[in-house]
Predict the structure.
Amino acid sequence: MGPRLWLLRQCEETQGFPCASGFERGYVKLTKFARVLLVLSAAASWQASAQTWDTSGNGLLKGAYYFREVFYTVGSDSGGLSEATALYGTITFSGSGTYTANVTLYDSSAGLETGPVSGTYSIAASGYGFLSSMLYTGDLVYGLVNQQGLFVGSSTETANGYNDLFIGAPLSSPAPAAAAFKGSYSLAGIDLSSGSPSTTINYQLQLNPDGVSNLGTGSLTAYVGEAGSSKYTQSISSVKYVASNGAMVFTLPNTASALITGQKFLYISPDGNFVFGGAPEGWDMFVGVRTGSGTPSLGGLYYQAGIDQDESQLESAGVGILDTYYGSLSAGSGNILGHQRLFSLFNSNALDFTSSDNYSTPSSNGAYSTPAMNYVVGAGGVRIGSGIGPYLGINVAVPAPAFSGSGPYLNPTGIVNAASSAPFTAGVAPGELLTLYGTNLADSLVISPVIPFPITLGNVQVTINGVAAPIYYVSPTQISAIVPYELSAGIAQVQVITDGNPSNTITMFTNETSVGVFSVPPGGLGYGAVLHQNGSLVSPSSPAAIGETVSVYLTGLGAVSPSIPDGAAGPVGTLSEATNTITADINGTAATITYSGLAPQLAGLYQVNMTVPSGVTSGDNFLDISGPDSYTSEVLISISGTTAANSPVARRIVPKIAKPITPLPKRKPL
């Protein structure tokens, strides 16, 4: 059986139809607090334009909010900070794309300042969008808002070279009193206030406020950068809190053995199930959930954001690697497919990182763990995470809204990579095979009988920025189509036309690449669609050997040369090779790529031929493939050898380019 027939058979058998689918010195002193307006930066071509981005979801952000945003600028090759800033206060969204804010700024150089800020925002129907930065002219905070109004995001496309995390939640009216803060709460926090990776603190804090003024008896467990996997503990008792302008304010005592001390501002969601905050004069961030109410569960689509501080190279190389991100994840049956739009100064640019992970059923208090992070699922469905040394960090994931519509309807979160099923925030790339989910998309199942794939199939068309996309198959709830190669950088607007009736339009960001590897069975989890040279499947019963060259089937490698018409099969004579640089590794060991480009005689598929490197342990290993702006670590590959089989573990992404850090421009003055 040839590779195309094998791939199609896998999909037919599983889905019933085809789916070939200390602050550093020597840097310019920080300029003072600046009130800024939205100015789009020409230096970041990925950034959105408010004139073309979908704004039908602007009403999801409306009314008064509390927010906190922390900024970190890496200023040395060791990962030390040259500046840090905390921004917090109230922000009022108009519901139609503008905001005003009363802001307090605490800066590592300029100290404490206050001032008003105004700006704009654009939110799509999915809740995905951006708002103009309150601090840096031309920058945007990208993120997502859910049905409860919780917004999480990060300025990953900044031209100013900082990392940040932004969290906002609606402010109840009247403002919350002390009685709103009652029950059992689990908090996850990270404190980079020292400016050094060696003394970064990552903690979990359990609190039991009584709804009057007492935090109750609590406990803290923490990891410190230079201490690696060593765990520290701290007891909390006899601490009072007060409600002040809707925020809960408390002070942790400064004892000789305490890791986390001082005053904290805690903001609380209207339902009391989610909290976040930090020190008014510090550069930390914590997120938290109320636990102990009902049976916690994890499932469905979530919007996420977070901070990572990878300390695994601190002892060997003297470096801590900071990154921040936003994105989404889908969870179910103990498996997670996640996407992070991730920025680190140790990479050459922001990238889309997609990965898979496993999880166990949360305990009665919502807790579960993976090798790199401890998680808690709260009463309102929000999940928080706290890193396990040496992989420090915090994560917050909020349940995504549910969507429905009449007529031909595209799910606003339902356009995904056909190979990896990476969530919709991963964006799209030229030549990528997509799966579109929705309702009333076609009258019946129709599969293209010909190659090149047609642009009309079963009275259905798909357009991307007005260009007709080749279609592989259509069905009432699912379509498989190829992104036209002429797709330009920036924005992709996707629409389905069924029997002459147009669907809603979905807006997405575009990339040079959006790499996804086909899996067996389909869906992006488990073993990759990797073939031996005789066409048989690489599997645990037929593993790849060290030194063997295997073929990986995937999509999303982007532009090719020589170019081909949209929907055509990959040529056989002169092969169409990917113009983007593609790399591969197996559990972190680089593999030599001998070919990357379109799969010959196949439409909508790419192929990477790679040689299994020496030094890889036998058994199941993660197979990672990356382009210049995307990195996928979802599937496994089985390797033969004499070494005892290893079990795959959750891993943090390792920067592809460890580039030297240079001073970066600062905020513009008033």
